[in-house]
Structures are given as C-alpha cells and as structure tokens.
C-alpha cells in the first residue's frame, strides 16, 4: 500500500480513501484482515489523523470496514443478506440501462480476464483499455459496469461517465449486440465496495459483447445485487 499523497485539487482524505479502496479491489486485503492503525497510516502517508479518520469514516459508512475500539479497523466479513422485494424488468432493460450516463470510478489499460481476451479475439497477453462506471443515483449504487474495448477504440472509454455505446454512436459507429451470458456470484470486497452491498451477498453478473462492422469491439460486465432484480424472459 506504499504510495505518495500529493497536494492537489483532490483532497488528501479522498486520495487516501481511493488508495485503500484500490488495495481492497486488488485483493491486498481480505475479509477480516486488520487495516493499519491510524498512527501507522499517518506516518506512512504523511497526513494528519483528521485526514485518516475522514477516509476511514467514508469506508465505514459504506459498510466496507468495521471499527472496534481497542482492537482496530477490519475489512468487513461476509454477512447474511437481508431479503428484499425484487423488481421485475424486461430482459433487454438491463443492457439498455448500461447505456445510461454513470459515475466514472476507475479506468486505464490492463491485461483483461481470459474470458474478455477470447470475446475480443485477442491474444491473452495483450492489454486493453477499460473503464468502470457506477449507475444508480440513489443511496445504494444499483449497478457497476466494467467495459473492455479493443486498443484501437481507446477513445471510446474515458472518465466522462458516458457508456461505450453512447460514445460509439456519437462518432457515427453502428453497434450490434452479440453473445450475452449471465452468472450468479457472491459479493467480493471490490464489488461490495462499488455496489455498497454486504460482503458475500448474491450478485448477478451479466456479460455481453458489442460488435462494430461485424467484429467484436467491446466486452462488458454489469454487476448488480441479485436480491433486487428479476428478469422477465418472455
């Protein structure tokens, strides 16, 4: 978790918050792991105790970590999810929802999962541009969308929060939906943090491929709480 916080337009506590989240997403911390103490974080990043507390408070409010007086701060363990009323929606509405403008969370260029390399017909060693957006707008984020695109289409994923589909159509490119599939998964720390969902709660992971000019152009993964949605396949 070694990194340097810089004086910039982004407040120090938000920088620290982002570093801790990245550590969780990358698997550096596991449920039940103890985080460094406030004093250790202050010394490591050269910030005040007030800055550290602000960052930890934000993670605590979202249920990512728990703080126990006298024991320390821990990455939250899985908990039994509450049963929620499910909302039925047409199957196509899920993919249509991904075209909405969301909040940009993270992006860059990285080696994708093997399923993405195969979907885009690329060698598995090739790195591709990606962007992660969160959609919802209420207290609890409802969907997270991670889009991987061909290196030649990097301009179609940026930090604007706009979807790949919207960016492509803006440039006059015609998209055609390709293969789509769905999986049931449990909320790991990275998804729990993005969706503000309890660790270990059921999630739906919907994958689909977009084609341009008859060739795979992008592969998307949309993750949503499994207890909140039901698809109508009729």
UniProtKB/TrEMBL annotation:
Assigned keywords, A-Z: DNA-binding, Transcription, Transcription regulation
SUPFAM superfamilies given in the database record: Chorismate lyase-like, Winged helix' DNA-binding domain
GO annotation, biological process: negative regulation of DNA-templated transcription
Nucleus in keyword set: no
Domain HTH gntR-type: residue ranges: 10-78
Source superkingdom: Bacteria
A GO term for molecular function: DNA-binding transcription factor activity
Record-given protein name: GntR family transcriptional regulator
Organism: Pseudolabrys taiwanensis
């Amino acid at each position: 978790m070694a990194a340097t916080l810089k004086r910039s337009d982004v407040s120090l506590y938000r920088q620290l918050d982002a570093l801790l989240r990245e550590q969780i997403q990358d698997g550096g911390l596991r449920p039940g792991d103890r985080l460094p103490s406030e004093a250790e974080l202050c010394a490591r990043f050269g910030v005040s105790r007030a800055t550290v507390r602000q960052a930890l408070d934000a993670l605590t409010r979202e249920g990512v970590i728990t703080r126990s007086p006298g024991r320390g701060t821990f990455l939250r363990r899985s908990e039994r999810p509450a049963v929620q009323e499910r909302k039925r929606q047409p199957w196509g509405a899920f993919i249509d929802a991904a075209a909405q403008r969301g909040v940009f969370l993270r992006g860059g260029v990285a080696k994708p999962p093997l399923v993405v390399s195969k979907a885009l017909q690329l060698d598995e060693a090739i790195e591709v541009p990606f962007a992660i957006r969160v959609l919802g707008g209420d207290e609890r984020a409802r969907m997270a969308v991670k889009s991987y695109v061909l290196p030649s289409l990097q301009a179609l994923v940026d930090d604007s929060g706009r979807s790949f589909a919207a960016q492509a159509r803006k440039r006059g490119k015609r998209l055609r939906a390709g293969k789509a599939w769905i999986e049931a998964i449990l909320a790991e720390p990275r998804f729990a943090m993005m969706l503000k969902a309890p660790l270990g709660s059921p999630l739906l992971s919907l994958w689909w491929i977009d084609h341009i000019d008859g060739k795979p152009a992008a592969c998307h993964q949309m993750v949503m709480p499994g207890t909140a949605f039901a698809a109508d396949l009729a």
